[in-house]
Amino acid sequence: xxxxxxxxxxxxxxxxxxxxxxxxxxxxxxxxxxxxxxxxxxxxxxxxxxxxxxxxxxxxxxxxxxxxxxxxxxxxxxxxxxxxxxxxxxxxxxxxxxxxxxxxxxxxxxxxxxxxxxxxxxxxxxxxxxxxxxxxxxxxxxxxxxxxxxxxxxxxxxxxxxxxxxxxxxxxxxxxxxxxxxxxxxxxxxxxxxxxxxxxxxxxxxxxxxxxxxxxxxxxxxxxxxxxxxxxxxxxxxxxxxxxxxxxxxxxxxxxxxxxxxxxxxxxxxxxxxxxx
Length: 277
Description:
- The longest helix is centred in the middle third of the chain and has 27 residues, at about 115-140.
- This protein is mainly α.
- The chain has 13 helices and six strands.
- The chain is globular, with a radius of gyration of 23 Å.
- Residues about 20-35 have low confidence and may be disordered.
């Protein structure tokens, strides 16, 4: 990952012009943008069939990307101190949850250690509760964040943790539409077609893994409610598998969260079941 500051475009132009003949195109592209952009040349290099990995090759790829893709670049927005703190707390909480589950599985059916294991589990649960309280306190420091989170939490199945993660992401990144947000979460199916062949769709699993996990957990909780259960049952009648249906519902939750955040509304269950009646 390479970060390129357009405020230093003069230096970039001088450096790149010494390597390439397309300096006039680069200069025009750089001068038409402001801010900081993050460019990742290696996937671009793979698509072009580049085999070598050197500074000169990367510089060539950067110049080519700027010349060809400058109109589609979006400025990188670094997280605020609050957003960075919330992200860090969510990741650490996820780590503790994994440790607790691993401990319970490892020590299951082991005689003579039940009381000690239970004591450790209770301590981990107390630590999780403390982290939840800390995240709630951080969110309370920003009334706009708190109000946005409360609107997202009107989605049936979305609790405080999922709501905070969704709100933190939506406030930081300005997604063009709901499809862009779903793609960011890695829950969008990736097409693999060629000619008349239609390949199997698989999840891209790109983007923040913890947000993807939280959305899936929210879907598991949602299908137990009277709002989402008819949707789950309708897909089951069509022959859908349970995991695939949960992914579909997780995508619907993500779309609803984007819409609520974008238009500052609340969750409307009638829009979900409109097509089922």
